[in-house]
Design a protein that fits this description.
mainly alpha; elongated; 3-stranded antiparallel sheet; about 425 residues; 15 helices
Length: about 425
């Protein structure tokens, strides 16, 4: 695609200098995007020729400044053609950086990645999540190890990256780090985002992931049965932290709230309508409004941990990783032979508590705070009990009809 490239010199009337002159500015425009830079030159307003973009007249000073403006134009044009000649994604900012001597060819992958992570960390709690930050930080650490082991270097220039680097890192996290297919997929998607961001800023000439196939695999999501939930309820847990984690997990099983949303829950999220209590909150991940009615068990748990302050957290939980360690021990004590994490509670709510009891998938999607019902369909596994119930209902409708037809057919044959 051909770029529309323009250079314009103009005076900045809003910022006159102390001597009354106006600074001369340069504007670089490419495909509608623009950037400004100072020429470090100035002129009296009446001497500036707006149409020509230069100083009017033939005085020695005018010729000197106009020659300087011509040299700036030539330098910017040369910077533009340097980028275009290397078939990089050309932006006004990159042209400006090349002209000012900030050579993109010295930009390095890990330096760029670390700056991205630092910027991302500052936005956590605003429009970024800590979990996603941890993911990017983890990928960056694995990249550091890979580059050190494979290339015996501390970092790589963007211009050094190729498909061999991509396949090498893919194999490294898959085989040497022994990550499962879906974890590998998540890490490669994170790297893809970093490289796309670098390319958008002009640091890379091509998309390394073009034609590179990344696939996840469908996995069976664990959920608890009603019998297993009952085993957790009846389990005698002595340690106060383990008891808190168990109760919060059970609360999530009957409300569908995720770990991060449960940690943010305060008495202000609890409302009463007549004799019924509801949880009203906003999902941190999707920003969706969620309203869930409390049944007897989650209400009893809520009363047990309700703080006095309206803005205090109801469940003062440890980190998600430590909660999962506690849940594995609790599951073993309860005789549950499954890998149980805090997210298992959300699967349990979608499957055992709602779908298996005949709740419509659209309602479940609303309760879980999903923006797309296809996400809910991933959680909502059809259990054997639900399947047996549906087929029993179908049998009641079809069997009498079939028996009548068979009797009629037998009478005709007789």
């Amino acid at each position: 695609m051909r770029n529309t490239f323009k250079i314009l010199f103009y005076v900045k009337r809003s910022s006159p200098l102390r001597n009354g002159e106006l600074p001369i500015m340069c504007r670089i425009t490419i495909n509608g995007r623009r950037v400004q830079l100072s020429t470090q030159l100035s002129v009296q307003e009446q001497r500036w020729d707006v149409r020509a973009g230069r100083i009017a007249g033939r005085s020695a000073q005018a010729e000197r400044i106009n020659e300087r403006l011509a040299a700036i134009r030539h330098g910017i044009e040369r910077s533009y053609h340097t980028l275009a000649g290397e078939q990089l994604y050309v932006t006004p900012q990159r042209v400006k950086e090349i002209y000012l001597g900030l050579d993109y060819r010295n930009e390095r992958l890990l330096d760029f990645f670390r700056r991205h992570n630092a910027e991302f960390r500052r936005m956590v709690g605003l429009n970024r999540s800590m979990t996603t930050y941890y993911k990017y930080r983890c990928v960056c650490i694995h990249l550091e190890n890979f580059i050190r082991d494979k290339y015996n270097r501390r970092d790589l220039l963007f211009k050094e990256l190729d498909t061999e680097f991509l396949t090498g890192f893919h194999a490294y996290i898959s085989h040497e780090c022994s990550f499962k297919k879906n974890t590998t997929w998540i890490y490669m998607i994170a790297l893809k985002h970093i490289l796309m961001l670098a390319r958008s800023r002009g640091y890379m000439a091509c998309d390394l992931f073009a034609g590179y196939k990344l696939r996840s695999e469908s996995v069976m999501r664990n959920y608890l049965t009603m019998q297993e939930i009952d085993s957790l309820i009846r389990l005698d847990v002595d340690h106060p932290t383990a008891a808190l984690v168990r109760d919060a997990f059970l609360f999530s099983c009957f409300t569908g709230l995720s770990y991060v949303d449960l940690c943010a829950l305060t008495p202000e999220n609890v409302r009463q309508e007549r004799n019924r209590f509801w949880i009203s909150t906003t999902r941190r991940k999707t920003g969706s409004e969620v309203d869930v009615r409390l049944f007897a068990l989650p209400y009893a748990i809520l009363c047990r941990y309700m703080p006095r302050r309206r803005d205090a957290p109801i469940f003062d939980l440890p980190g998600n990783g430590w909660c999962n360690v506690c849940l594995r021990r609790i599951a073993e004590q309860a005789g549950i032979a499954k890998r149980v994490t805090f997210h298992t509670a959300r699967h349990t709510f979608a499957t055992t508590v709602t779908l298996s009891q005949g709740v419509a998938i659209e309602t479940i999607s609303k309760l879980l705070g999903h923006k797309n019902i296809r996400t809910t369909q991933i959680y909502a596994t059809v259990t054997h009990a639900r399947l047996d119930l549906e087929l029993e209902r179908l049998s009641r409708r079809i069997d009498p009809l079939c028996r009548g037809r068979l009797r009629a057919a037998g009478g005709q044959n007789g």
